[in-house]
Design brief:
By secondary structure, the protein is of the alpha/beta class. It contains 7 helices and 14 strands.
């Protein structure tokens, strides 16, 4: 098992480890490293993968230079190695929305996190990331995604999760069908009336690249892919309503 490193947009690196036994055909766990004046890591990976991920970071920037750590929600593959990274990078801070800081991160992180709110932009020096709260999408009260404005890359976390070990960067392929195959297997999304509208708001950003946590990075018609994903969840939500028997 090893961790591969690919630049999927200018200065945005996908660190990817495929766990063969996690699902049929394997399952990738990706982190994204933005190489800026103040480098940011989005997803730390699980605590037990820190050796692999830390070595992969070092192929791009010295680990001790990391300045910012963020992720999508409080979960092992998102932030399991958060405190290992904080220990290795003395100037690093976790930056997350206020709800996440209040509910989990303020307590679980070894150093106090920096709290931001929906729409806030952090200037990394050469790159800028916008924080977008997405409560319960795909799961987690505190859920968020990041939009790297300089390259129009949406760090989309668990959205579009798929099985297998795809190439680092793909173009104009169907992301939606394999995502709903994984959804059928894992049931990882909390499907509510807000799911599809939240995803459609991400489409409004018109990203040029989608950076998946479990799958490839995708360059192509990202808005169409996001609307396709939203359509599928809207159908599932409608079906769940129809399934309710009112007596
Ligand atoms: Fe998750
Ligand atoms: Fe995940």
């Amino acid at each position: 098992m090893d961790t591969t490193v690919h630049e999927i947009a200018q200065d945005v690196y996908r660190l990817s480890t495929c766990i063969p036994d996690a699902a049929p055909g394997g399952f990738t766990f990706n982190q994204y490293l933005i190489d800026a004046d103040e480098p940011m890591l989005f997803h730390t990976g699980p605590r037990q993968m820190f050796g692999l991920v830390g070595a992969a970071i070092e192929r791009v920037v010295p680990l001790e230079r990391l300045r910012w750590i963020s992720f999508g929600h409080y979960e092992s593959d998102e932030c399991g190695a958060m405190n290992d990274v904080l220990a290795a990078a003395p100037d690093a801070e976790v930056v997350f929305n206020g709800l996440g800081c209040m509910v989990s991160i303020g307590d679980m992180a070894d150093r106090p996190p920096r709290s931001v709110e929906d729409g806030d932009v952090l200037d990394l020096g050469g790159h800028r990331v916008r924080f977008i709260t997405t409560p319960h999408v795909p799961h987690g009260w505190e859920a968020q995604v990041l939009f790297e404005e300089t390259t129009s890359t949406l760090l989309s976390g668990d959205l579009f999760s798929q099985l297998g070990e795809p190439p680092a960067l793909v173009q104009d392929i169907d992301l939606v069908t394999p995502s709903f195959d994984a959804e059928a297997m894992f049931g990882y999304t909390c499907v509510t009336a807000n799911t599809a509208p939240t995803i459609r708001r991400l489409a409004d950003l018109a990203p040029r690249t989608l950076a998946l946590m479990h799958g490839p990075a995708f360059a192509g018609d990202c808005a169409a892919a996001l609307h396709g994903l939203a359509d599928g969840y809207a159908e599932r939500f409608a079906a769940s309503i129809d399934a309710v028997v009112v007596r």
